[in-house]
Design a protein that fits this description.
3-stranded antiparallel β-sheet, Four Helix Bundle (Hemerythrin (Met), subunit A), Rossmann fold, 309 residues, 10 helices, 2 domains
């Protein structure tokens, strides 16, 4: 698959989910590096930077994407030949991919410890790492039940219930707006995230914030499963995480839209859930309160304020 093929599939959501997007980007950079025909190391770095920019433009909200690209491209910094640069690039890409997969397993083990036997769990959107926590708890023999939302307008919830069904977990499939009605039956809420800000707030699929508010009012704990590469370094300097707004046709068919000239369809893909609604963020480094997000960025991602100037 070419670099542009990967970019197109990320943009169209054929490749979806922050972890899968990040791994696909690392793979695309690794593979693209082998196609660059130049002996000039500076020309090689310039082309790989261009390739990174192509991938970056596909999904502006998923912080895993720039973190993956930055990790891979930074590996070329001390190389003196194009061959060395390619080797460093490939090694970094493979490390990122393997560490990403390992992170999911680590978080699953940590998350399962926070799920009790007999719990009923609510989840929103299709998160590989959130599902891993639930499935691991079930694998350990805990009797659990799940409420999964439909997740309009892309219906990612269908992927979620298929995964839960395959694991043999009793699951209730509900429309997003029914979440508050069922909140009295819920013991905890587990979601993934596309980005974690320095203040501990998280960006996740549209609808998350209002469901989190309902959970907060009902005193239902909210756990966010997030690999460390989903933390957003640039929020340390006040940068905002852009919220992607997708094509209106996902919400309203174009054939109907043209008959409604005074109607504007808004289709934000994500919203921001405040840290006040979050009890714990589950990372591969351990479970942390949201106010400790800064330490993940500084100590585990290695970013400092100077890096962001």
């Amino acid at each position: 698959m070419t670099l542009q093929d990967t970019a197109d599939k990320i943009s169209s959501m054929e490749i979806r989910g922050a972890g899968k997007i990040a791994r696909a980007a690392a793979e695309a950079l690794r593979d693209h590096g082998t196609t660059v025909q130049t002996a000039d190391v500076d020309a090689f770095r310039k082309e790989m930077k261009r390739a990174g920019d192509v991938l970056l433009a596909t999904r502006p909200t998923a912080v895993s994407l720039p973190n993956a690209i930055n990790f891979v491209l930074k590996s070329m910094g001390d190389t003196s030949t194009s061959e060395e640069a390619l080797e460093a690039l490939a090694t970094a890409a493979e490390k990122f991919i393997e560490d990403s997969k390992d992170a999911v397993a680590r978080i699953a083990a940590i998350g399962a410890r926070h799920i009790r036997d007999g719990d009923t769990i609510l989840t929103h959107c299709n998160s590989q790492v959130a599902l891993a926590c639930i499935i691991e708890a079930h694998r350990q023999g805990k009797q659990i039940e799940v409420f999964a939302t439909e997740v309009r307008p892309r219906n990612q919830g269908l992927l979620t219930i298929k995964a839960l069904n395959a694991a043999g977990i009793t699951t209730n499939y509900i429309v997003d707006s029914a979440a508050r009605s069922f909140m009295r039956e819920i013991d905890c809420m587990i979601i993934g995230t596309d980005a974690v800000a320095v203040n501990g707030s998280v960006v996740n699929k549209i609808g998350t914030s209002q469901i989190a508010l309902a959970a907060h009012e009902a005193r239902v704990p909210l756990l966010v499963a997030a690999e460390t590469y989903k933390f957003a370094p640039r929020t340390m300097t006040g940068a905002l995480i852009p919220i992607e707004e997708r094509n209106p046709s996902e919400v309203l068919d174009d054939a109907i839209a043209v008959t409604l000239p005074h109607v504007r369809v808004r289709n934000p893909a994500f919203d921001i859930t405040p840290a006040d609604y979050i009890d714990l963020i589950l990372t591969e480094k351990g479970a942390i309160p949201p106010e400790m997000a800064y330490l993940i960025i500084r100590e585990h991602l290695g970013w400092t304020i100077d890096d962001l100037r």
